[in-house]
Amino acid sequence: MAIIKYRQTALSQAATVIIIWKEYPNDFTMNKSDHRAGVLYIVATPIGNLGDISARALEVLKAVSLIAAEDTRHSRKLLAHYGIGTALQAVHEHNERNVTGRLLQKLSAGADIALISDAGTPLISDPGFHLVRSARQAGIRVVPVPGPSALIAALSVAGLPTDRFVFAGFLPVKQAARRQRLQGMVTEAATLVFYESSHRIVDCLADMATCLGGEREATLARELTKTFETVLTGSLGDLLECLQADSHQQKGEFVVMVQGAPPRDPAAIDTAAEQVLAVLLSELPLKQAAALAAKITGLSKNVLYEQGLKLKDKH
Asked: What's the total number of domains in the chain?
């Protein structure tokens, strides 16, 4: 159902702005009573340069009843810089589920709340998912206030394809789990994007070179919008050597972007596919073995048939 509302704005005393939106489930709730539930604003804050905050973000942070912040000590400095005295409530990965209920009560009672992270856009490898999901399920309106994001800022300067990308966040801390995750991305054609800390950046690049190939092109963005911002481009192997040779390049917060895998040659048969074909050939006639191997591997039946002939000739 389309809802039309008229609102007088400060743009012009005589002007009337017509705002039209559609009512969707869990997006905006209208009650027959005059009671209005509050709004949960998801507000992006600077990732380094304080000048990157938007005028709208400042307006929202000043106007809301409460700011839910990942680290109140960190956010208090940001708010003090802009002269904002709004009350703060800590919402981080360790307490988010516990405080969500109380925040929903405030929202239901009509209080507007802003959610911010330490830097950038909330929920992007930061807390907030449980709160936002619960708010939408409760019929609370959730409104984005867009702004800085290390992910998007890094992609914009990387010089890698951006028509498709996969954001993988932080890789696992332990090497075995990290390599397993990377192995699952070996054939991904989209640009791969990761966040990484200074403590693990060298080990991370080493595992990427091992699993994805040291020759794979990549861009490393460090300390974006800050004093020591650095953007390096080269092969994974070259970037690893660069960081190993300069400890200063190992400091800060990183966005690692890796070019996707090249298109697969439909005529190419990898070792795994050849093993499947060999096992089937030991039990089935060549034509049947090639057809079944094609279903299992997704490769061309004709290509597998030709490879089967070669395997039979070897034996």
From this structure: 3
In whole angstroms, what is the distance from residue 141 CA to residue 136 CA? 7
Domain boundary among 103, 133, 148: 148
What pLDDT digit, counting tens, does each position of 232-288 carry? 999 999 999 999 999 999 999 999 999 999 887 666 777 888 889 999 999 999 999
The percent of residues above 90 in pLDDT, for the chain, comes to 77
Quote the crossing angle between the two packed helices 129-137 and 96-108, to the nearest 10°: 40
Q: Which residue has the tokens 């990377």?
A: 182
Relative to beta strand 165-170, strand 230-235 is unpaired
Query: Looking at the structure, do residues 91 and 135 belong to the same domain, yes or no?
Result: yes
**Contact status, residue 3 vs residue 22, Cβ threshold 8 Å:** yes
Instruction: Read off the pTM.
Output: 0.75
Is 22 domain-assigned? no
Clarify whether residues 279 and 228 are in a common domain: no
Residue of 147, 176, 266, 201 lying closest to 218 (CA atoms): 201
143, part of any domain: yes
3-state secondary structure of 164: coil
DSSP three-state, residue 234: strand
- Range of weakest confidence among 11-20, 44-53, 232-241: 11-20
Do 178 and 197 belong to one domain?
yes
Burial of 48 (0-12, 13-18, 19+ CB in 10 A): buried
Give the residue numbers spanning the domain of 203: 151-258
Tell me how far apart the alpha carbons of residues 78 and 61 are, in angstroms, rounded to a whole number. Answer: 11
DSSP characters over 22-39? E--TTT----SSS----E
Q: Which of 220, 241, 223 is nearest to 231 (CA)?
A: 220
